[in-house]
Design a protein that fits this description.
Alpha-Beta Plaits; 3 domains; SH3 type barrels; rod-shaped; single chain; 5-stranded antiparallel beta sheet; 14 helices; 3-stranded antiparallel beta sheet; Mechanosensitive ion channel family protein; alpha+beta; YbdG; transmembrane
Length: 389
Amino acid sequence: MTTLGGWMNKTLVGWGVDPKFANTFDETIIAILIIAIAVGLDYLFQAIFVGGMKHYTNRSPHRWNTLLMKRKVVPHLIHTLPGILIYFLLPHTFVHGIELLGLAQKVCAVYIVAALAFALNGLLLVFLDFHNQKDNSKNHPMKGFVQVLQVLLFFVAAIIAISILIDKSPATLFAGLGASAAVLMLVFKDSILGFVAGVQLSANEMLRIGDWIALPNGSANGIVKEITLNTVKIQNWDNTISTIPPYTLVSGSFQNWRGMQESGGRRVDKNIYLDMTTLKFCTPEMLDTIRKEVPLMADYQPAEGEVPTNAQLYRIYIERYLCSLPVVNQDLDLIISQKEMTTYGVPIQVYFFSRNKVWKEYERIQSDIFDHLLVMVQKFDLKLYQYSD
């Protein structure tokens, strides 16, 4: 079959053009024509197929076709069609220089491999989008795994492209890479460690998107916003963003507040320090006064033969007061105890759980409760310890 290049070359030589110049001229024209045809075919196929897909998506917007268009899977697949056509047209266009024909076909093949790689990458992102739209996606974040597959995809695509350009089998290149596995492990150390840590974090449900976590060194204390192959992004309470390598969380320790958020309450654990010199046994007159002035103690009767102290009555009052509050979860621990004396007085530990776990409301509730308890100290003829020079 007479090629287009051969016909053009013969025509130019027939017009008296020098054969060397004719060879260069016709191959340049052919190269320009090929590029123009490739671009024109690409626009044509994009208009037909991608335009039709957009029209269908607008008329019948389903999750799958919307995501395929969003991640540009169809456009990347369409890019391969002009490349395939041009690849098979190339032998019928060049007449001189088998090496130039071979180079052009290699470049075309690399273009096809790249377009397919981007299309497959789009499919991986579509899979990730499908997963993220599920209700339990926060429990099993997949972004890190998809990133690993993306790295492998483009790595394999690069090996295939290089094997095409140097005219070697991909298997030969992979075999050669096996000998340099140690170097690759060093280069991709963070990615490998991040992948392994991501598997551990996900499999053991140690971390989810939306968890409140705190690191002991204070570098992060906030909500997990994103879990990727190499980083865990945490939005701190001051609205700054901390990025932590996943393997740091696995190899070290961190505090996850998810258990508190999923439980029936948030813990309050504070001490009230009493002046030791104000502790004393209650007289019958003191008991009568307390019963009259403190409604929650109106029915209090000491055990037979018992002479209670004012600190003991105060502890009983604290427990009764907390049990009367709807915001205190009675199903969880509620402990009022006297701790070992210190140089700062006698500490009374107040330990309970607030039903409301929202930070702002939690702080307001415990502040209101302790304001009340601090004021009520004087009703029991006690004083708070306050340091003075």
